[in-house]
Amino acid sequence: MNPLEICNVTDKNLAKFPKKLGSIGNWIQCRGMIYNEKDDNDAGVLCGKWRRSPLFVTQTDNWDCFCSVVWDPFHSDCAVPQEIETDEVMKHLKFVDLLKNRLNKTNT
Ligand SMILES: [Zn+2]
């Protein structure tokens, strides 16, 4: 199985993705679990880190930091700290929502 399938990334939309990251992007929260490998009884904790993503990538129930390997290999690991404060991410997301609403309106 292609691991990128759970990330909602297909070759088709990757082809459309520009090489250089634009200033406008989406943010997706990691739903992966982090386990303490030294402890067999560890129940794990939710990663919950926010990762920058292209606009065409949407949040899924099993989205994982690994999924960002395609556009941001540096942050594609749960061990890597979140890029910016969650407060800042929320501000970005509000802006993206606003933008999407505006685009939807002009399309219809
Ligand atoms: Zn993660």
List the SSEs and their pairings:
Blueprint: H1 11-16, E1 26-29, E2 33-34, E3 45-46, E4 50-53, H2 86-107
Antiparallel strand pairs: 1-4, 2-3
The protein binds zinc ion.
Zinc ion binds at residues 30, 32, 47, 49, 64-65, 78.
Textual characterization of the structure:
With 108 residues, the chain is of the alpha+beta class. The chain has one domain. Helices cover 26% and strands 11% of the residues. It has a two-stranded antiparallel ribbon. The protein has a two-stranded antiparallel ribbon with strand order 2-3. The longest helix is centred in the C-terminal third of the chain and has 22 residues. The chain is globular, with a radius of gyration of 15 Å. The mean pLDDT is 83. Bound molecules: zinc ion. The site of zinc ion has 7 residues, from loops. Zinc ion binds next to loops.
Q: What keyword list fits this structure?
A:
single chain; globular; 108 residues; binds zinc ion; 26% helix
**Helical residue percent?**
25-40%
- Give me the secondary-structure category: alpha+beta
Number of domains: 1
- The best one-word shape is globular
Helix-strand sequence = HEEEEH
* Number of separate helices: 2
Q: Quick one: biggest sheet?
A: 2 strands, antiparallel
Residue share in β-strands: 5-15%
- Strand line-up in the sheet with most strands: 1-4
Protein name: CW-type domain-containing protein
Organism: Zostera marina (Eelgrass)
InterPro entries: Znf_CW
Keywords: Metal-binding, Zinc, Zinc-finger
